[in-house]
Every structure is written in structure tokens, then in C-alpha cells.
């Protein structure tokens, strides 16, 4: 799935804003599974929320991320994912201490380049779907920076720049300008 590109990294590091810019430029984008799950659970009064049932939340995020990949199966154009399957599995391994990545072929799900939004305290914000603090977001980032290479991915650090320049950086690295 060389055309499936993940934007991952630190919560509050500008991933969603970058995806909005790529969408505005005509690229296929997929919203973060976790944000969709939280929004749905909040609307329906559900309890599969990261601050109430983290393991259930991550298992559902894995399912949603697989559905996202299936939805774009066969698409020849680039598809940019705000997080995805690897992020959810990394979180599940962290909280359970069990190896969930083995046998899932996670190294074959996405392009080997994964763009990582670094911790950026100047833009970090809490919102209705993000209740954890900056220190937790930074710790998650550090885990992901170790987890992705373990599966054969090459993390590419996103520059702390304006959104248009950040999008240009991603597209130049992929050779996919528009």
C-alpha cells in the first residue's frame, strides 16, 4: 500500500491541520479513528472512551483503522491517514504489555515513510476529544518513534513550520506534488 501515507506523532502536533491542507489540495484523507470514536461515543452516551476504557477504545480503533484501509483498497491515488492501525496497536501493546503486532503484517499496511509530528507545546490544545496533557502526548510520541521502526517504517520528522510549508514538505518527500 505504497499510496497509503500515515501522519502520526504527538497529539496536538498539527496532524489534523496538515490533513485538512492536503484535503484542500485535492488528496484523499482519512480522519483519525480515535477522534471519530470519541465523537460517536460522546453523542450516544457510550463508554468506549480513552479516559474510561482505554483497552476497549484501542481495540475499536484497530477495527476502525482496518475498515479505513479496506475502504480505500484499490485506490491508486495517495491517501493520507491521520494516525491509523499502527498507532492503535502501539497503544494496545503499551497498556497490555502483550505483543499484538506480531502476525498482523503491520509493516505492509502503509508506505514505509511515516510522517511524525513532533511535540510542539506552542500549538498544543485540549479539546472535547483530547483530554490528556502535553506530557502524556509527548510520551506517546516517544513510544511511536520507537514502535514504527520496529515494524520496518522510516519516521520522517515534520518541520515546525506553517501548514502550507509542512504540506509541501510531505509532498516533496513523496514526489507527489499537486
From TrEMBL:
InterPro entries noted in UniProt: NadR/Ttd14_AAA_dom, P-loop_NTPase
SUPFAM superfamilies documented for this protein: P-loop containing nucleoside triphosphate hydrolases
Boundaries of every NadR/Ttd14 AAA domain copy: 5-166
Gene3D superfamilies in alphabetical order: P-loop containing nucleotide triphosphate hydrolases
The protein, known as: Putative ATPase
Amino acid at each position: 500500500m505504497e499510496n497509503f501515507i500515515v501522519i502520526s506523532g504527538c497529539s496536538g502536533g498539527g496532524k489534523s491541520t496538515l490533513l485538512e491542507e492536503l484535503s484542500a489540495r485535492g488528496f484523499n484523507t482519512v480522519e483519525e479513528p480515535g477522534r471519530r470514536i470519541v465523537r460517536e461515543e460522546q453523542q450516544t452516551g457510550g463508554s468506549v472512551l480513552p479516559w474510561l476504557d482505554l483497552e476497549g477504545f484501542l481495540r475499536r480503533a484497530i477495527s476502525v483503522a482496518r475498515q479505513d484501509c479496506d475502504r480505500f483498497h484499490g485506490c491508486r491515488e495517495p491517501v493520507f491517514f491521520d494516525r491509523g492501525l499502527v498507532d492503535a496497536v502501539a497503544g494496545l501493546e503499551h497498556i497490555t504489555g502483550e505483543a499484538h503486532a506480531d502476525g498482523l503484517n503491520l509493516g505492509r499496511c502503509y508506505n514505509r515513510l511515516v510522517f511524525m509530528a513532533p511535540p510542539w507545546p506552542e500549538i498544543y490544545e485540549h479539546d472535547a476529544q483530547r483530554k490528556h496533557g502535553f506530557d502524556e502526548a509527548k510520551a506517546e510520541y516517544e513510544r511511536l518513534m520507537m514502535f514504527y521502526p520496529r515494524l520496518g517504517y522510516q519516521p520522517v520528522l515534520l518541520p515546525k513550520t506553517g501548514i502550507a510549508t509542512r504540506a509541501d514538505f510531505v509532498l516533496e518527500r513523496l514526489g507527489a506534488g499537486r
